[in-house]
């Protein structure tokens, strides 16, 4: 009860973000249209790749499994997308962070609940419906649905949300020292998309690189939950993958706290 009371001041930040996003309904339609085109292009790309090969599978993925992978990785990347680095950089640049820092609340918790508003928005308006359709596709392709894998997938993406939040939060804190974050942001996003398995499953990378990529936090954001959903990991591998997610969350939380203590002392307000 006391814990909930401590979090109560932060709930309006999640609510305000959710209400702000829901007020722009056209954005949802445009987003869905754009992502649908991207999924369609990806579908026909993989169809062409599998059509040009003699075997029924590539790196352990059948064509149907790859289609499910594309949909689930898309949904996973969407629901964990709690990128608040831009918001932090904007506040530093326009000077509004000065007002936010003097408020009697934790800046870290405020940004976390603000990002939760985005998570709930995408979860309600895109994730639920698309996930149901994808699961129906999975049943149609393979004739079964593993409830345990679905539950473990949902738990894994919850860890993925925390993981991505702290990565984004740490990246956003760099704006305390770096004035213009645009170029660095573009490079980082490209690296994350490649190493998280959104574009290409990590199983398609060279054998020597796979253990490295799987240990890095990026694969824990998208690749791990997606592989759990597909049933590509056995019980031991699932436990190991979830443990890696937890370890990286702890590491990034620690780094974030250290960076905050160091950088807040030398913060220069540019605007305001």
TrEMBL record:
Keywords: Membrane, Transmembrane, Transmembrane helix
Lineage: Bacteria, Bacillati, Bacillota, Clostridia, Eubacteriales
InterPro entries given in the database record: ABC-2_transporter-like
Superkingdom of origin organism: Bacteria
Protein name, per record: ABC-2 family transporter protein
Transmembrane segments: 28-46, 66-86, 119-139, 151-178, 190-209, 238-260
Any Pfam family matching the protein: ABC2_membrane_6
């Amino acid at each position: 009860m006391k814990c909930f009371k401590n979090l109560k001041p932060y709930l309006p930040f999640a609510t305000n973000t959710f209400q702000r996003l829901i007020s722009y309904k056209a954005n949802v339609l445009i987003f869905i249209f754009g992502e649908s085109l991207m999924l369609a292009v990806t579908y026909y790309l993989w169809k062409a790749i599998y059509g040009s090969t003699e075997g029924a599978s590539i790196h352990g993925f059948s064509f149907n499994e790859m289609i499910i992978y594309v949909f689930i990785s898309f949904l996973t990347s969407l629901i964990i997308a709690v990128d608040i680095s831009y918001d932090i950089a904007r506040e530093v640049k326009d000077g509004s962070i000065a007002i936010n820092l003097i408020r009697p609340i934790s800046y870290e918790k405020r940004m976390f609940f603000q990002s939760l508003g985005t998570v709930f928005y995408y979860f309600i308006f895109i994730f639920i419906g698309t996930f149901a359709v994808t699961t129906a596709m999975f049943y149609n392709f393979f004739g079964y649905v593993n409830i345990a894998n679905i539950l473990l997938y949902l738990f894994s993406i919850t860890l993925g949300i925390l993981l991505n939040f702290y990565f984004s939060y740490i990246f956003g804190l760099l704006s305390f020292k770096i004035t213009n974050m645009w170029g660095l942001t573009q490079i980082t996003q490209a690296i994350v998309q490649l190493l998280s398995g959104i574009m290409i499953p990590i199983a398609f990378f060279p054998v020597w690189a796979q253990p490295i990529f799987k240990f890095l936090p990026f694969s824990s954001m998208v690749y791990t939950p997606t592989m759990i959903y597909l049933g590509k990991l056995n019980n031991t591998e699932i436990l190991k993958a979830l443990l890696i997610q937890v370890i990286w969350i702890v590491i990034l939380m620690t780094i974030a706290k250290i960076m905050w203590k160091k950088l807040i002392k030398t913060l220069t307000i540019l605007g305001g």
